[in-house]
Amino acid sequence: MSDTILLERDGALARLTFNRPASLNAMDFEMGTRWRDLAHELTSDDTVGAIVLDAAGPAFCAGGDVVAMATTGSDGAAITAMADVIHDGIRTFVESSIPIVAAVQGAVAGGGLGLMLTADYVVASPAAKFVSKYANIGLTPDLGVSTLLPAAVGQRRALQMLLTDLTIDADTALDWGLVAEVVDQPGDRAEQIARSWLEGATGAFGQAKRLVRTGAHRPFAENLGDEARTIGAAFDTADSKTRVAAFAAASRTPRH
């Protein structure tokens, strides 16, 4: 089994750790396959309620491993095939009903932006830096960047990052909406957030994530139908019945 991405389980919490620190966690072919396989494994496991995505070493992810691409004799067809494998994992995670929080440190470059934005909530360290670098080496966005980046920061800012050599710091990323929080210990904070999902209405958090993520790319009428079916199914769960009853009881309590 590949150790390019580590999987750790603690009950309903799953932690995925990018583990190629010597390469700034750039994703090579082996790591990309591991990513896809873990996506299918975790999203098909009903015991997984939340996922923490983090990375070993000084950087979160430097994108695709361009050095490996250049030195292994890969051609464009091989790169397309590998991108499809990684994209399968990204799509599987994004469209799942499992909320994901990412803890980010150091450099997040190129496709690393897309991998980071696979998460629904991003916590960054004050030293984190974010940059595209695609065009600098004559390449185009992949790993969901052309969709996930403008969804996070807006089209104009996404183009600013993709069409210039702009590097933004953590505070700017927070201001732009690329990350949700900037803290000194992003790993600890990310785990705290994931556990809050598990301690709360886990299923409802997961379905809210799924509705928002998938709804961005569907007709409005289809989204409304999905919302109606989802809230109806949620209302019939034991967890919802307990929480709704408690809410109703508290609402009837006289206030003095």
Index terms:
256 residues; 9 strands; ClpP/crotonase-like_dom_sf; isomerase activity; globular; alpha/beta; six-stranded mixed beta sheet; 2-enoyl-CoA Hydratase, Chain A, domain 1
How would you portray this structure in words?
This protein is of the alpha/beta class. It has two domains: 5-198, 2-enoyl-CoA Hydratase, Chain A, domain 1; 218-252, no CATH class. The protein contains eleven helices and nine strands. The strands form two sheets. A six-stranded mixed sheet has the order 1-2-3-4-6-9, sandwiched between helices. Strands 5-7-8 form a three-stranded mixed sheet. α1 (29-43) packs parallel to α3, α5 (145-153) crosses α6 (155-163) and α9 (202-215) runs antiparallel to α10. The longest helix has 19 residues, at 76-94. The protein is globular. 39% of the residues are buried. The mean pLDDT is 93.
Strand and helix layout:
Layout: E1 5-10, E2 13-18, H1 29-43, E3 50-55, H2 66-71, H3 76-94, E4 100-104, E5 107-109, H4 111-117, E6 121-124, E7 129-131, H5 145-153, H6 155-163, E8 167-169, H7 170-176, E9 181-182, H8 186-199, H9 202-215, H10 220-235, H11 238-252
Parallel strand pairs: 2-3, 3-4, 4-6, 5-7, 6-9
Antiparallel strand pairs: 1-2, 7-8
